[in-house]
Amino acid sequence: MIEKVDAAGVAALVGWLSGIDRDVDDSVRIDMLRALEDVKAACCAAQAKQAADFEASRIARRAAAGVPKYRSNRGIASEIALARRDSPSRGSQHLGFAQAMVHMPHTLSLLERGLLNEWRATILVRETACLDREDRTGIDAELCADPTTLDGLGDRALTAKVREHAARRDAEAMVKRASKAVGDRRVTTRPAPDTMAYVNALLPVDQAVAIQAILGRDADSLRAIGDERTRSQIMADLLVERVTGTSTVVGPPITVNLVISDECLFGDGTDSAHVDGYGPIPAGIARHWVKQRLDSDTKTELRKTSHEAKCQAASSEGGGNA
């Protein structure tokens, strides 16, 4: 019989894991990787149950204290985020996952047993979010009551299977969800390693597929006539050229604001510079950028701030790479 475990017991498990023997055979290492993956899934399930119980307890206590219903769940997601050392927005996602698990007992069981990982469980939750409780519970039973149902399915195949079952149960809900999603289309950027950045576009699937197909087709055409760039490099360059209307060699006509200290710009300082909309970059790369623009025909302005003693290099009419 398994004894009940409290927070101290879980903390002891964390300490035990740090002492895992590494002087073992490769077969043992593979077995350990499998077992640790099961532990991760079980931890995810345990967190979901604790989060759901925490929300139910908080709401019940507030109801007993006379707190209005519309305020009964205020701050709960933030508390969960704080406990998990995560952002408030992620806390809302964690809580939403926990709320779904309450009505998806078979998915939760697979997660507890290590037969389903957190991401695949998230796919099941995400793709059934538009359904009512009865339909979501029904899909949970259809796909997860038998652990072998999902065997051999990759993430994409799993997503497609869940969507197929969801459409069969409530096609109208799926249509409404798709219609609403179109309103969420957007373009965002986020930093990537090595002073690169990701540009993400959330688009209707027909538009996204068309963009990918056109860039791929034209990249193949250029490679066929001897272009030595890789297919991915050509596609990226074509995207920039078609969005900005200029060649990637010339550079787009934009302004890039670079904030850098005078010691780093004119000396050998090592403090990071800052690019608006991106974040910190190494001082050496910032100096290289500024030198490139000063040596070219690019209009470059250097402005010194009076209160922070920093120089801001604003590169306009070409050459922005951030």
UniProtKB/TrEMBL annotation:
Locations of Basic and acidic residues compositional bias? Answer: 299-310
Domain of life the protein comes from? Bacteria
Q: Where is this region: Disordered?
A: 299-322
| Descriptive protein name | DUF222 domain-containing protein
The record lists the organism as Antrihabitans cavernicola
